[in-house]
Amino acid sequence: MINMGLIGLGKMGGYHLNLYDEIPEIKLTALCDADEGALGLQVIKKNVPGFTNYRNILPLVDAVTIAAPTKLHYEITRACLEAGKHIFVEKPITTDYRQAAELFELAEKKHLTIQIGYVERFNGVTRELKNIVSNPTLIEARRVGPFNPNFKNDSIIMDIMIHDIDIALSVSGRQVAAIQAMGAPVHTKLADYASVNIYFGNSSMAHIVAGRINHVKERFINITQDDTLIMLDYLKQNIDIIRKGQLQDFSERDEIKYKNNPLKNEIEHFVSCVEGKSARIVSIEHDLHTMEVALEVDSLLKSNTYGYKEF
Ligand SMILES: NC(=O)c1ccc[n+]([C@@H]2O[C@H](COP(=O)([O-])OP(=O)(O)OC[C@H]3O[C@@H](n4cnc5c(N)ncnc54)[C@H](O)[C@@H]3O)[C@@H](O)[C@H]2O)c1
Q: Residue 311 above 70 pLDDT?
């Protein structure tokens, strides 16, 4: 049984909280939010101690989930690691490579689990990719949706495209040889829409689009390899495969059960790592590489004429 604390009770924190009751290994022992209203509501509902200062939950927990705003992740993660707590931190862990490397190093030194909330990795359809992708030539990803003013100061690369960069790097398995990026500000002074090419060498590349100007939420990845096109819809949790021009409805195969709750899978994996029953599904080097590529894309957009402008 893990004594779990949750820091940040906004939208994402709420999703985590709703799932704890379904995971028997988790005992929620403390809550934290800087906003007394948000905190009070959940403290009454869950009947656990609540604090507006995250430091006060530390004596009550073995592990914490950090779902506070991104700009606070570094400070809170560091303090919790120093206090010997296992960490589940929502993505992005920070927006600074050196800070991320420092946090991983600290976790390793203290033999603590640190997991970043790359929820799409835990989508059943994404997990299935390792069984069907081999030597991809073209990876095309699209992650778009309507504007949310809560994130107007956050980069869409670090906020949403980072999921697709992470998956493209895993699926490709190759080193990045070159990156191109272009974006346009629409609702904010940052790029609200971006189109990115990652070249892996050997005639293989990823083309990734992310946007927060779109009227409909879409999350797709199409992968072209040899005689096969793999079309994955993260939202419908569906995979279609076209092999030699013939559609094969892969997701209807009885033995494949990937319509599940990715966040629940992700929390269960965290618990299993904390209990020493599982190892990280990707290496720390991969996590740092994802961050490095995302930050490089972000900096290209910043320097681009059509990229984002400084406030
Ligand atoms: N994994 C995903 O797909 C995904 C999706 C959405 C958001 N996120 C990430 O989750 C994090 C939170 O996003 P959100 O949409 O829930 O934001 P939100 O604004 O809805 O919630 C943030 C909460 O943190 C609280 N907070 C602020 N300062 C605090 C402090 N010092 N101590 C404790 N609590 C504090 C706020 O009062 C608020 O309740 C962000 O880092 C975001 O990038 C991840």
A: no
Q: Whose CA is nearest to atom 21 of ligand 1?
A: 10
pLDDT tens for residues 2-26? 999 999 999 999 999 999 999 999 9
Q: Is the pLDDT of residue 309 over 50?
A: no
* CATH number attached to the domain at 2-117: 3.40.50.720
32 - beta bridge partners? 7, 51
Q: Cis omega before residue 92 (within 30°)?
A: yes
Contacts of 298 (CB under 8 A, 6+ apart): 95, 155, 157, 158
What is the second-level CATH architecture of the domain 121-258+291-303?
2-Layer Sandwich (3.30)
**Could you tell me the distance, in angstroms and rounded to a whole number, from the CA of residue 251 to the centre of ligand 1?**
33
For residue 234, the one-letter residue type is Y
Predicted local distance difference test score (pLDDT) of residue 253:
56
Ligand 1 pocket check for 72: Cβ under 6 Å: yes
Q: Report the residue among 77, 90, 217, 270 best suited for mutation to probe ligand 1: largest number of ligand atoms under 8 A from its CB.
A: 90
